[in-house]
């Protein structure tokens, strides 16, 4: 019998993975550490299966340790007798409360079997929600920027916990970053917002992140040239040389044999920048 740490994804019920949904449906008890994760879990399980845990709103480490010991003591017997789940938004191993539970279970209930079901993290979901591409070979750093902090240094950063966007923005703009903010991305609860203007989101909302990129960053992906060199693009690929999706094809449209496909993948992978880093 097992304790499952389940990542629920960013908030929309259908972004829970198939495996996560199956485990939730089969679990005897589903514990949630907060209101939002509880409401996502409720899209998949009956309310009678939800086991609420009480966590004090405190930074006092003694009190937090006591709360986690109490939570683990409540969960462990149920995880010995059956399957239970502990849900978190996003992924359980990314800036998540699940880490506290895992360490407490390991320390005080080491016989409990533990398994993790990864979830769609805000770390990756932001890219689609905000129309950003982190192309192969690029670096990307994860930082926190609570209470107006403006961490700087890396070429590209995702900043979590942006609770004072105008103050954070000031420091980032001064350091030469272009910044886009995303609030409640892929979330059913509350309004989703994507904006470059920090004053649009000046009221505090914990579910806010920022993507910061150095303004003078040069993107070196081979196909980036298509965005600036229209003429070259139209010379190289005529209308009938594209697939239905508009993707250029290598041979004017005829079906490729399998060995040609393998060779094409290899060439694109290496010469197109996916084999090695460019920065
Ligand atoms: C403690 S971290 C939890 C991260 C989560 N475990 C994950 O993998 O996405 C919380 C921070 O993640 C960011 N975040 C999480 N979900 C988000 C969402 N749906 N939209 C925007 N930001 C989100 C916010 O910056 C928030 O302050």
Description:
The chain has three domains: 2-120, Cobalt-precorrin-4 Transmethylase, domain 1; 123-214, 2-Layer Sandwich (Methyltransferase, Cobalt-precorrin-4 Transmethylase, Domain 2); 226-271, no CATH class. Strand 2, helix 2 and strand 3 form a beta-alpha-beta unit. Helix 3 (61-81) crosses helix 4. It contains eight helices and ten strands. The protein is of the alpha/beta class and 279 residues long. The protein starts with a strand and ends in an 8-residue tail after the last helix. A five-stranded parallel beta sheet has the order 3-2-4-1-5, sandwiched between helices. Helices cover 31% and strands 18% of the residues. The relative contact order is 0.12. The chain is elongated and about 60 Å long. It binds S-adenosylmethionine. S-adenosylmethionine binds next to helix 5, strand 8 and strand 10.
Strand-helix topology:
Elements: E1 2-7, H1 18-26, E2 29-32, H2 35-41, E3 50-52, H3 61-81, E4 84-88, H4 98-108, E5 113-117, H5 122-129, E6 141-144, E7 156-160, H6 165-174, E8 177-183, E9 193-195, E10 208-214, H7 230-236, H8 258-271
Parallel strand pairs: 1-4, 1-5, 2-3, 2-4, 6-7
Antiparallel strand pairs: 7-10, 8-9, 8-10
Helix pairs in contact: 3-4
List keywords for this structure.
disordered C terminus; 3 domains; 31% helix; alpha/beta; 279 residues; elongated; 10 strands; five-stranded mixed beta sheet; Methyltransferase, Cobalt-precorrin-4 Transmethylase, Domain 2; 8 helices; five-stranded parallel beta sheet; binds S-adenosylmethionine; Cobalt-precorrin-4 Transmethylase, domain 1
């Amino acid at each position: 019998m097992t304790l499952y740490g389940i990542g629920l994804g960013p908030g929309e019920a259908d972004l829970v993975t198939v495996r996560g949904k199956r485990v939730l449906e089969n679990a005897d008890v589903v514990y949630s550490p907060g209101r939002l994760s509880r409401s996502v879990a409720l899209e998949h399980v009956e309310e009678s299966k939800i086991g609420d845990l009480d966590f004090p709103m405190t930074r006092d480490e003694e009190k937090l340790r006591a709360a986690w010991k109490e939570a683990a003591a409540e969960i462990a017997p149920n995880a010995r007798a059956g399957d239970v789940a502990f849900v978190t938004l996003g992924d359980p191993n990314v800036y998540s409360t699940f880490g506290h539970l895992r360490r407490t279970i390991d320390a005080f209930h080491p016989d409990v079997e533990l398994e993790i079901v990864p979830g769609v993290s805000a770390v990756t979901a932001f890219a689609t929600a905000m129309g950003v591409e982190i192309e192969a070979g690029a670096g990307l750093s994860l930082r926190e920027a609570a209470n107006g902090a403006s961490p700087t240094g890396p070429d590209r950063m995702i900043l979590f916990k942006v609770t004072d966007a105008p103050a954070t923005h000031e420091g980032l703009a001064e350091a030469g970053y272009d910044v886009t903010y995303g609030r409640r991305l892929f979330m059913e609860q509350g309004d989703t917002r994507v904006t470059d203007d920090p004053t649009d989101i000046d009221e505090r909302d914990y579910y806010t992140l920022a993507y910061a990129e150095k303004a003078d960053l040069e993107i070196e992906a081979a196909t980036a040239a298509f965005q600036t060199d229209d003429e070259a693009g139209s010379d190289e690929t005529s209308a009938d040389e594209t697939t239905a999706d508009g993707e250029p094809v290598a041979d004017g449209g005829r079906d490729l044999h399998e060995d040609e496909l393998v060779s094409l993948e290899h060439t694109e992978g290496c010469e197109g920048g996916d084999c090695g880093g460019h920065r």
